[in-house]
Amino acid sequence: MRILVLGSGGREDAIAWALEWGHHANDDEVFVAPGNGGSRLRLDVDPTDPQAVVDLCRREAIGLVVVGPESSLAAGVSDALREASIPVFGPSAQAAMLETSKAFCRSFATKHSIPSPVSEVFAGPQAAEKALLWAEQQSFEIVVKADGLAAG
């Protein structure tokens, strides 16, 4: 089988190595896209462009895609691959929101009674002022995080 590991970081290189050389490895060809200088078999594609990834997979007869970067998941790459009937290991964009959106994750944890630190989400033009007022009323140390991807 021809396998594509989507991404360019160390995580993706480790996955590619395990698929190619690990104790379960067989005759699979493992490609990394876009990969990096340490990647053995690289293919060129924007990992956040769902249609470009689908087109690459069709052109290269890829039988399985492993999606690494959160940015690819947030862009809907896994969704597009599933829609194109290309087997993919990676959550949908909606499921990936647990990783890609801190605000969504906190809301989900609260809704489902999952223990987590006290938190508050502020949005809109007055968010900074509202956050400062809220923080002044708390009796514990405050951590401020932006919603969205942090690239690591």
Characterization of the model:
It contains 7 helices and 4 strands, in the order E-H-E-H-E-H-H-E-H-H-H. It starts with a strand and ends in a 16-residue tail after the last helix. Helix 2 (50-59) crosses helix 4 (77-83) and helix 5 packs across helix 6 (102-111). The protein folds into 2 domains: 2-97, Rossmann fold (3-Layer(aba) Sandwich), CATH 3.40.50.20; 101-152, no CATH class. The protein has a 4-stranded parallel sheet with strand order 2-1-3-4, with helices on both faces. Strand 1 (2-7), helix 1 (10-21) and strand 2 form a beta-alpha-beta unit. The protein is an alpha/beta fold. It has helices at 10-21, 50-59, 70-74, 77-83, 93-100, 102-111, 127-136, and strands at 2-7, 29-34, 64-67, 88-89.
Layout of helices and strands, plus pairs?
Blueprint: E1 2-7, H1 10-21, E2 29-34, H2 50-59, E3 64-67, H3 70-74, H4 77-83, E4 88-89, H5 93-100, H6 102-111, H7 127-136
Parallel strand pairs: 1-2, 1-3, 3-4
Helix pairs in contact: 2-4, 5-6
Mean pLDDT: 90
Helix content: 40-55%
The proportion of residues in beta strands is 5-15%
CATH class of the largest domain: Alpha Beta
**CATH fold topology of the largest domain:** Rossmann fold
Could you list the spans in which at least 5 consecutive residues all have pLDDT below 50?
A: none
By DSSP (H or I, 4+ residues per run), the number of helices equals: 7
Strand order of the largest sheet: 2-1-3-4
The structure class reads alpha/beta
Q: Radius of gyration from the CA trace? A: 19 Å
Largest sheet: 4 strands, parallel
Counting structural domains, the number is 2
Distance between the amino and carboxyl termini: 30 Å
What's the number of extended β-strand segments?
A: 4
**What spatial form do the alpha-carbon principal axes imply?**
elongated
Named CATH architecture of the largest domain: 3-Layer(aba) Sandwich
How would you spell out the order of helices and strands?
EHEHEHHEHHH
